[in-house]
Write a structure and sequence with these properties.
56% of the residues lie in helices and 8% in strands. The chain is of the alpha/beta class. It has two domains: 165 residues, Rossmann fold (3-Layer(aba) Sandwich), CATH 3.40.50; 120 residues, Zinc Finger, Delta Prime, domain 3 (Up-down Bundle). Strands 2-3-4-1-5 form a five-stranded parallel β-sheet, sandwiched between helices. Helix 6 links the parallel strand 3 and strand 4. Helix 1 runs antiparallel to helix 2 and helix 11 packs antiparallel against helix 12. The radius of gyration is 25 Å and the shape is elongated.
Length: 328
């Protein structure tokens, strides 16, 4: 279970602002926590809720052991309400139900908290109904709105909240956290580069589809070195069979992009920057096949292939054209 000290490692400004408010008993009636995926906004919202509701909070940190803390963790605390989008949006009925719930006295105490996840997905009617709720906040009631897109929030709602902006995690921070959690250093490096979302990086370590995608990149590069005439057949029979849609193929192109960047890193003797560390011998073998100039040219071709996908060029044509460029 996270505490404010752990949050401060990746979100020092947000952690300092919130803990000072808690210590000074100056918790705002409404917060808008905005940050990209992977910036721990949900964990911060839950920790803030605990710090408000827990009766044994010390130095801004909840005790993490009392019944209140445990029930907040499980999502079953009667004084905490967490709203998620119902389908594609947060609907008026959800906000109406929330307001009704908050007309009742607190079951355990008078401290009540509600969290609205993906608040930018509220319908216009839901947002306007929430606005009225924010304009007349109940005593000891705290609202926490979470969003990755603050531009989707009504200005009138923004003006009634304390905005807490979370900074994006760097790939080095994600890599460090993953290694501390027990992931291998090689995988932590690759996943931290592939995504800046800590949660998704964790999921990739258990993702069989991604593991196979990684193997296919290694196999393709081996074929391009050893037997180029088989490369197009491999693309048709193996590559396109695995990367079935445009999003998956785009991920495969991202992996190829990182592979050719690694070739350039080795050409300039910058091994510390390698992403495919677990496959360094295979990348090394590519040095004899691709000059630095070749690799730079192919990087440009991969970027062009990604653009063609966005322009709805047929995936087979995109990969065949790119493969011909890589046959050098």
């Amino acid at each position: 279970m996270v505490n404010w000290q752990q949050i401060s490692e990746t979100q020092p400004v947000a952690s300092k602002m919130l803990t000072q408010m808690i210590k000074q008993d100056r918790v705002a009636h409404a917060y808008l926590i905005q940050g990209d995926a992977g910036t721990n906004s949900r964990e911060i919202a839950k920790l803030l809720t605990k710090s408000i509701v827990c009766r044994y909070t010390r130095d801004a940190n909840p005790c993490q052991a009392c019944a209140d803390c445990h029930r907040i963790d499980s999502g079953n605390h009667p004084n905490m309400h967490w709203i998620e989008p119902d389908g594609l949006s947060i609907k008026t009925e959800q906000v109406a139900t929330l307001k009704k719930e908050f007309t009742y006295a607190g079951v355990e105490s008078n401290e009540k908290v509600y969290v609205i996840s993906e608040a930018d997905r509220m319908t216009t009617n839901a947002a306007n109904r929430l606005l009225k709720f924010l304009e007349e906040p109940g005593e000891k009631t705290t609202a926490i709105l979470l969003t990755e897109n603050s531009y989707g929030i009504l200005d009138t709602i923004l003006s009634r909240t304390q905005v807490i902006s979370l900074r994006p995690l760097s790939h080095m921070e994600i890599e460090r956290v993953l290694i501390e959690e027990g992931m291998t250093a090689d995988n932590a490096r690759l996943f931290s580069i592939v995504t800046n979302d800590l949660t998704k990086a964790r999921e990739l370590d258990q993702d069989e589809w991604f593991a196979q995608a990684r193997k296919l990149v290694v196999q393709l590069m081996s074929i391009l070195r050893a037997n180029q005439d088989e490369a197009l057949l491999f693309i048709e029979k193996n590559w396109l069979d695995h990367f079935k849609d445009r999003d998956q193929l785009d991920r495969g192109l991202d992996l190829l992009l990182l592979w050719f960047k690694d070739i350039i890193y080795l050409h300039v003797e910058n091994e510390d920057a390698l992403v495919f560390k677990a496959n360094q011998e295979d990348v090394n073998a590519c040095l004899w096949h691709y000059s630095r100039q070749d690799a730079t040219h192919i990087l440009a071709q991969i970027m062009n292939a990604k653009r063609e996908l966005l322009q709805n060029v047929h995936p087979t044509l995109v990969m065949e054209e790119l493969t011909l460029q890589m046959q050098r």
